[in-house]
Amino acid sequence: MNNLLRNVTKMVLLKRKCQCPECGAVLSMQESFDENNEINVCEKCGQKLANRQFAYQGERFPGVTWFCDDCGTILNTQEGFRDIYPFYRCDKCGYLNRITEDEAFDSIEEKREHRKKIGG
Ligand SMILES: [Zn+2]
Ligand SMILES: [Zn+2]
Fold it and tell me: Which ligand is nearest to the CA of 94?
């Protein structure tokens, strides 16, 4: 119902090890992982991960990956995305996403809890 809710995970890819923040799998060990890909998908849990090399790393929320609430696209890799804006319109679907601190979560677990609380 509350589709303003942000899907955010901290980027573990910031670390050299390239671990999935969702399940902890080592991505560099996975066959489909390519450090030249803009986005990699964890083979184990399906979590989408923006490549640090290409993705915008954030100013207000360094290291946070932002996903579009509507289509699930990673916003960090879109041209023109900056987390200093209160809102950002997704290039792909045109959805207006809220970029605020209370929408940023340390983990997917935390995000799920938050969703439960607000009934979304
Ligand atoms: Zn994973
Ligand atoms: Zn979108």
Answer: 2
